[in-house]
Write a structure and sequence with these properties.
Elements: H1 13-16, E1 22-25, H2 32-35, H3 37-46, E2 52-56, E3 68-71, H4 77-86, E4 90-94, H5 101-117, E5 124-133, E6 138-142, E7 147-154, E8 157-161, H6 171-179, E9 198-202, E10 206-209, E11 216-220, E12 225-233, H7 235-254, H8 265-281, E13 291-297, E14 305-313
Parallel strand pairs: 3-13
Antiparallel strand pairs: 1-10, 2-3, 2-4, 4-5, 5-12, 6-11, 7-10, 7-12, 8-9, 8-11, 13-14
Helix pairs in contact: 3-4, 6-7, 7-8
């Protein structure tokens, strides 16, 4: 019989899930066959360009202007891991469950158990990403669009989770992220925000789930980190996405300063229709932000980063 995903999920946690920040134990720190160096090196080599990001940044300060996008082209998986160990490298491997069915088994087992443990929870659009990052690397202040959970497997990191309301998350800024017109890390961050954050030190075998769109930032401890994220949608989260999408279109087109965010009734249905029509028209794709690739991962270079001529890319 398969062991449960969670090690300490109590009945009252069902009432907290999705509404409050929730830290729980999990068993995936024991899954060396999926998250050991050999498996990760193989996965790096098998992941197509469209399904990964590799970044570097200043690890001594919080300055999104120092965040750069790079490439793993021509780099063996083991060499990429060497660069992570000795450099300032953050690798995101998206949708590993589409490359190796074992990660798909992990993803399915997680949501199957959540649906059993949280009455009424029904979700879809499940996705998984694996994060491999250097000691002291940061993930700058940002907000994610879908429901999000972080699962720590190796190493440790400190998370700061902030309220999903202004001034921490201005509505217009969230709309631009939903529309793809701004990067997730485009949110304004002020050091005084930290006084209002929940601060969690995440160790192997622990996971963290937070309410929708809560801004957060991450600072690795002085060790290599391996973790993975899972994301999902529910009917309520899909509705919130559509409202933010439609409001972003209306704000840009009509210049409204304040827009309601209906959760039911005609206002919601009108926004569902507008978001669907605009999204599937393809008009928004021309406004989506791209990225500039300007370094190659190289374990022999300082911080694992070798500069290269910049070129633009869209995913």
């Amino acid at each position: 019989m398969r062991q449960p995903v969670f090690t300490d999920f109590a009945p009252h946690h069902a009432d907290l899930f999705g509404r409050h920040t929730l830290e729980l134990g999990h068993r995936f720190d024991e899954a060396d066959g999926l998250f050991g160096d050999g498996a990760l090196a193989d996965l790096i080599e098998r992941t197509p360009r469209k399904a990964y990001h590799v970044n570097t940044m200043d690890v001594t300060t919080h300055d999104p202007r120092t965040r750069r996008e790079g490439t793993l082209q021509g780099v063996r998986g083991a060499a990429a891991l060497d660069a992570v160990r000795s450099g300032h490298i953050w690798i995101l491997l998206q949708q590993p469950h589409e490359i190796d069915s074992r990660y798909g088994d992990v993803l399915r087992s997680i949501y199957a158990e959540i649906e059993v443990r949280v009455p009424g929870f029904k979700s879809f659009n499940h996705k998984m990403s694996i994060l491999i990052s250097s000691p002291k690397v940061q993930v700058y202040y940002h907000a994610d669009v879908p429901g999000q959970t972080l699962w720590q497997v190796r190493g440790s990191k400190r998370l700061y989770v902030y309220p999903n309301t202004p001034p921490f998350l201005p509505q217009a800024a969230l709309e631009k992220i939903v529309l793809g017109e701004a990067h997730e890390i485009s949110l304004n961050y002020e050091p005084w925000f930290d006084a209002h954050a929940e601060v969690i030190d995440l160790e192997p075998g622990r996971m963290l789930h937070w309410p929708l769109n809560c801004p957060h930032r991450i600072v690795n401890a002085e060790c290599v980190n391996v973790s993975f994220t899972t994301e999902h949608m529910t009917r309520e989260l899909r509705n919130a996405y559509a409202v933010n999408y439609a409001n972003g279109v209306l704000r840009r087109a009509l210049g409204f300063a304040r827009l309601p965010r209906p959760e039911s009734g005609l206002g919601l249905y009108a926004r569902l229709g507008l978001a669907a029509a605009h999204k599937y028209s393809g008009a928004q794709s021309r406004r989506k932000v791209g990225m500039t690739i300007d370094f190659q991962v190289d374990p022999q270079a300082p911080h694992g980063v070798r500069n290269m001529p910049a070129f633009a890319m869209r995913k």
